[in-house]
Design goal:
about 270 residues, mainly alpha, MetI-like fold, 2 domains, 11 helices, about 85% helix, flat
Length: about 270
């Protein structure tokens, strides 16, 4: 028998839960903002009172003036745009190429066993050591920076995605084989859908690794970009410029990561 009072009680409890959850999320957001404000205020006060050396550590007011000046002459947007462009290109190529290679490894056990030790070595190898080699091979161009970003992300993509494919539910694969499915159909119907979560998680890792690769590349060869500004500022002892570039770099990293989260939500809704 339908009990309206019981439903009302459940509804009220659910409303209380939603209200409590919203307050909890709001408290987290406010706490994050308060901590960030405290860091900048303390930084400014410490520099003004010479608790820290403002020449070495800079301070928020000088960083603000530097960013304002760069925004007025347009250099801020030029350098930020260069870094973002190189990161996105390296990120997309690394993710797509890495996923395709992972599919090839899953498809051929023979190929996987041959390449496995090479992947382990490449994953352990410090990618920065390859910077001078890439510079000689490709030259001091944007291509070499994109290749650096690619190197930082592609091996991680291959290993993570291939591992996800290998851990796919064997019972489902056996069931499809029982009904006469070929390897392509198994890949489309079972392996790829089961690995989509891992692929998305890999995107979160790759976006950071690609940015690291771009900055390393810009340290070596670039004449534009946030990495170039950091190196240039350090060489001429313009620490305001260095700290401003690092701050913009942190914002770029956060925006790229949030973009991947947005893609993740859209993809998961479609599944």
């Amino acid at each position: 028998m339908y009990d309206e009072n019981k439903e009302n009680i459940v509804s009220e409890e659910y409303k209380k839960y939603l209200t409590s959850h919203k307050r909890f999320r709001l408290a987290i957001r406010v706490s994050r903002i308060v901590i960030l404000i405290f860091i900048f205020v303390f930084w400014e006060v410490a520099a003004n009172n010479e608790w820290i050396d403002p020449f070495i550590m800079s301070q928020p007011s000088k960083i603000y003036n530097t960013l304002t000046s760069m925004a007025k002459d347009g250099s801020l947007f030029i350098h930020t745009g260069v870094t973002v462009y190189e990161t996105i290109i390296g990120f997309v190529i690394g993710t797509l190429l890495g996923s395709l290679i992972a599919i090839a490894l899953w498809w051929s056990d023979f190929l996987a066993k041959i390449l496995d030790p090479y992947l382990v070595v490449l994953n352990a190898l410090p990618k920065t050591a390859l910077g001078p080699i890439i510079l000689v091979w490709i030259g001091g161009t944007t291509k070499s920076i994109i290749v650096m970003a690619l190197l930082f992300s592609i091996v991680v993509t291959i290993i993570n995605v291939y591992t996800a494919f290998r851990n796919c539910d064997e019972d489902k694969i056996k069931l499809l084989k029982t009904f006469g499915a070929n390897r392509k159909q198994i890949l489309q119907k079972v392996v790829l859908p089961s690995g989509i979560t891992t692929i998305i998680s890999t995107l979160k890792i790759n976006v950071g690794l690609s940015l690291v690769g771009v900055i390393v590349g810009e340290f070596l060869v670039s004449k534009a970009g946030l990495g170039y500004l950091i190196i240039y500022g350090g060489q001429v002892f313009k620490m305001d410029l260095v700290m401003s570039s690092v701050l913009i770099l942190a914002i770029v990293a956060a925006v790229l990561y949030l973009s991947v989260l947005w893609i993740e939500k859209r993809v998961l809704k479609m599944m």
